[in-house]
Write a structure and sequence with these properties.
This protein has eight helices and 15 strands. The protein is α+β, with helices and mostly antiparallel strands and 335 residues long. A six-stranded antiparallel barrel has the order 1-4-5-9-10-15.
Length: 335
């Protein structure tokens, strides 16, 4: 009797079944009870309801208010409730749930053929989520660490150059993180919360001051004679090395990202990537031009002073690229 009644479990299970479901009297084990219940119309309705839920299941990233643990639990339960046991069918349902989010959809699709079980599916997607959390998104807060010195690109709102533009200074400061080294990063002409790619045109806005990282052009009237003069266009020079000054209130602010160690690489910009930053000048000596000089952001050992304080200079230059032109971009907070 124990063999068939499972120590009383069978009677307990039968007592929990809704009375509207009529059970044959000859049921004497749990397997037979399960098979009978599966043939009932209510089970068919149950499966169809869950299949509709499966078909409408949508993944919501955690940064948009989603909960990955709840999503995985729901997905797993829907597989069970709809008797979707084949891993290929499970993968198709999972991929469909990612359809509104191109990054997750694409990355999961790339590795689908290597997934052979539910555990592997969950592990693979969790790795994709972890990788996505390191992607720098439009509106994120970042820091730029100078690779050669380990010092952060910094600006102080109320501290200005005493030469050149006399705008807010930019320099490489402490090797320890400082709030003055926080910058918002934006894609120019992009959408807020878009992923940022290499080759993107971007701008950096200082988190504390709200001013933007850039360079500054100005016009100057040059007189050749009593009756002849001409307007020339120039850029303010850095205080010590006579390169192009970099400040935190420039009138040219559009930077381009390149991977310094992977030529022609195109992909998502991620935390701890090593990059070069360049800016294309909008003017030459004669005026506005489409073929302006491209210069790169550099910090070096040259210093300048303001009062009794000494700062490590940051400039733009058009010389050959070197290790002083490499910056490590660190994600402080994803948008």
């Amino acid at each position: 009797m124990m063999k068939y009644n499972y120590g009383g479990f069978l009677n307990t299970a039968k007592s929990l079944i809704n009375p509207i479901i009529k059970l044959p009297t000859e049921i004497n084990d749990l397997e037979k009870l399960r098979d009978i219940l599966k043939k009932d119309i209510t089970f068919t309705l149950f499966k169809n309801v869950n299949k509709r839920k499966f078909q409408s299941l949508k993944y919501i990233p955690e940064r948009d208010g989603g909960d990955n643990l709840k999503f995985f639990t729901c997905f797993h339960n829907l597989c069970y409730n709809t008797e979707t046991n084949d891993i290929e069918e499970q993968k198709e349902y999972f991929l469909k749930a990612l359809n509104d989010h191109p990054y997750f959809f694409t990355e999961f699709y790339k590795g689908m053929n290597n997934i052979k079980s539910m555990d592997e599916l969950i592990k693979a997607f969790d790795e994709i989520v972890m990788d996505e959390s390191n992607i720098i998104i439009d509106g994120s807060i970042v820091a730029l660490k100078h690779v050669a010195t380990g010092k952060y690109l910094t600006s102080i709102d109320n501290l200005h150059y005493t030469t050149g533009s006399e705008g807010p200074i930019v320099y490489t400061g402490n090797s320890r993180f400082d709030p003055n080294a926080c910058w918002y990063i934006f894609v120019n002409n992009g959408k807020y919360n878009d992923y940022i790619y290499t080759k993107s045109d971007i701008s950096f806005q200082h988190k504390i001051s709200g001013n933007s990282l850039g360079i500054c052009n100005y016009s100057q009237q040059v007189r050749y004679s009593r009756h002849l003069s001409r307007t020339q266009y120039k850029y303010h020079k850095s205080p010590s090395s006579n390169h192009t000054e970099v400040n935190c209130d420039g009138n040219e602010r559009e930077w381009k990202i390149d991977y310094s160690r992977l030529e022609n690489y195109e992909g998502y910009l991620k935390s701890n990537d090593i990059i070069n930053l360049s800016i294309k000048k909008s003017f030459d000596i004669n005026g506005h031009t489409q073929d302006g000089q491209v210069e790169f952001l550099r910090s070096h050992d040259v210093q300048f002073t303001i009062g009794n304080d000494t700062f490590q200079e940051v400039v733009c230059h058009n010389e050959r690229l070197a290790e002083n032109d490499e910056w490590c971009i660190e994600l402080i907070r994803q948008a």
